[in-house]
Amino acid sequence: MGVIGIGTDLVEVERFRLALRRTPGLTERLFSDAERAYAARRRDPTERLAARFAAKEAVMKAMGVGLWRFPLRDIEVVRAASGAPSVRLHGRAAVLAADRGVTEWRLTLTHTSTMAQAIAVAL
Ligand SMILES: CC(C)(COP(=O)(O)OP(=O)(O)OC[C@H]1O[C@@H](n2cnc3c(N)ncnc32)[C@H](O)[C@@H]1OP(=O)(O)O)[C@@H](O)C(=O)NCCC(=O)NCCS
Predict the structure, then answer these.
(1) Does the Cβ of 109 fall within 6 Å of ligand 1?
(2) What's the pTM?
(3) What is the CATH number of the domain that holds 55?
């Protein structure tokens, strides 16, 4: 299985917090119910959401598409029982990935109170 693309993104948690506060409904537009429910259980949900936003941008970069070619909710970060994150695509993102021959993803996240980063690999 070959590498089709890699992508990364780094998000400033406080800037992201302001963006979510300023735009009503943005959280629901960007994140699935499961992503929001997971974040809501943590001490600072925004830190988790920032990491997931970084993941969505990283996935777009790995597919070689510009931002906002499809709704960001089409890219979902799911969590295994171990805590390991993975990528699940829906809608136009799934179609685009299939067109590019992507059959699997690898994703890693890291975050602190100030920064959140994701790296995605399309296989
Ligand atoms: C994975 C681990 C090293 C995280 O390190 P950390 O420095 O505390 O936190 P980081 O910000 O660098 O990474 C956090 C991210 O690592 C990812 N992660 C968690 N568990 C993981 C695992 N088993 N494999 C790969 N990635 C994992 C998650 O995406 C997490 O972000 P999220 O909680 O928002 O989903 C640490 O949680 C660990 O050692 N886990 C091993 C499994 C474990 O002990 N689980 C405890 C519950 S049973």
Answers:
(1) yes
(2) 0.93
(3) 3.90.470.20
Number of domains in the chain: 1
In order along its 123 residues, the chain shows pLDDT tens digits of: 899 999 999 999 999 999 999 999 999 999 999 999 999 999 999 999 999 999 999 999 999 887 677 889 999 999 999 999 999 999 999 999 999 999 999 999 999 999 999 999 999
- Residue found under tokens 């089409």: 74
Verify whether ligand 1 is closer than 6 Å to residue 85 (CB atom): yes
From the CA of 83, give the closest atom in ligand 1: 20
- Assigned token pair, 26: 């943005």
To test the pocket of ligand 1, the residue of 110, 112, 114 to mutate (highest count of ligand atoms within 8 Å of its CB) is: 110
Q: How many CB atoms lie within 10 A of CB 8?
A: 16
Residue 75 is which amino acid? Answer: I
| Atom of ligand 1 at shortest range from CA of 85 | 29
Which single residue is written with the structure tokens 């925004």? Answer: 46
